[in-house]
Write a structure and sequence with these properties.
The protein is 96% helix and 0% strand. The chain has 1 helix and no strands.
Length: 54
């Protein structure tokens, strides 16, 4: 009986751990894309300002 409880607990822990890793991975992936878009927009803004000055 004790062995069964340990197996069930280990299985549940494994499921929750992998779900958490997937969630964190998705958050970081979204963060990377947002960062890339912000950098491109800032560079475009700088070029636009420089072009207006000339």
């Amino acid at each position: 009986m004790k062995n069964l409880i340990i197996k069930i607990f280990s299985f549940l822990l494994l499921i929750f751990t992998f779900t958490g890793c997937t969630l964190i991975g998705d958050i970081f992936e979204a963060g990377i894309w947002v960062g890339i878009i912000v950098v491109v927009l800032v560079i475009a803004l700088i070029f636009w300002i420089v072009k207006k000055m000339l």
